């Protein structure tokens, strides 16, 4: 999920290629040669693992790591769209899958929805679209009990409504997120949300 929460990944170094085709990159229009050193390292670390992966959930997990660690604003959305499409396809063909596997796929689908919302908010400046996708993600996260994912989604929604001037609604979101973080004992995020609540109260008093 694209947000202020940092995800650290220690890169494995693989040999690079002068030309990489779609069957390697998985998506169209990746201009590898102009990517940053970091993004090349991410791609050359994750994609070989993806191509070797046997399980669908393993592939979705690797796509998620790829999305979280890529910085290029034209590249990570392509992989997020792939995550969205692939997880949706797997859910539509889930009759032979275990309940645990379906739950895992739904978690990745919600992550893709959330990042579509992030893209709509931060790059398309379309708050209504962002909130719509955040709400779709949150519904799934609450259904499957993904408390960490739900907390992030709710915080992202709060940021939008603060900017819309709806401080009371933002506080409602922040306190909902805080309750989840207290339940999961996520001290760092409790501190972050508490600060956001303070800022929202100051905004409300202006």
For the biggest sheet, the summary is: none
Task: Compute the separation of the termini in Å.
Answer: 32 Å
Order of helices and strands: HHHHHHHHH
Query: If you average the pLDDT, what whole number results?
Result: 89
Return Rg in Å.
18 Å
Unreliable stretches: 4-19
User: How many helical stretches?
Assistant: 9
Helix content: over 70%
Beta content? under 5%
Q: SS-based structural class?
A: mainly alpha
How many distinct beta strands? 0
Shape: globular
Explain the layout of strands and helices.
Blueprint: H1 22-25, H2 37-52, H3 56-69, H4 76-92, H5 99-122, H6 127-144, H7 147-163, H8 167-184, H9 187-205
Helix pairs in contact: 2-3, 3-4, 3-5, 4-5, 5-6, 5-7, 6-7, 7-8, 8-9
């Amino acid at each position: 999920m694209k947000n202020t929460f940092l995800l650290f990944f220690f890169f494995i170094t693989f040999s690079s290629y002068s030309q990489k085709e779609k069957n390697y990159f998985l998506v169209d229009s990746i201009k590898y040669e102009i990517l940053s050193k970091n993004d090349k390292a991410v791609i050359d670390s994750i994609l070989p693992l993806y191509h070797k992966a046997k399980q669908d959930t393993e592939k979705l997990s690797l796509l998620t790591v790829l999305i979280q660690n890529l910085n290029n604003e034209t590249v990570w959305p392509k992989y997020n769209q792939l995550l969205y499409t692939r997880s949706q396809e797997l859910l539509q063909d889930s009759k032979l899958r275990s309940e645990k596997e379906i739950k895992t796929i739904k978690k990745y689908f919600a992550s893709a929805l959330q990042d579509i919302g992030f893209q709509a908010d931060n790059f398309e400046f379309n708050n209504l679209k962002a909130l719509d996708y955040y709400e779709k993600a949150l519904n799934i996260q609450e259904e499957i009990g993904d408390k960490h994912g739900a907390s992030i989604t709710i915080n992202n929604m709060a940021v939008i409504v603060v900017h819309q001037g709806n401080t009371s609604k933002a506080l409602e979101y922040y306190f909902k997120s805080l309750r989840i973080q207290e339940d999961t004992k996520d001290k760092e995020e409790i501190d972050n949300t508490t600060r956001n609540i303070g800022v929202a109260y100051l905004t409300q008093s202006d």
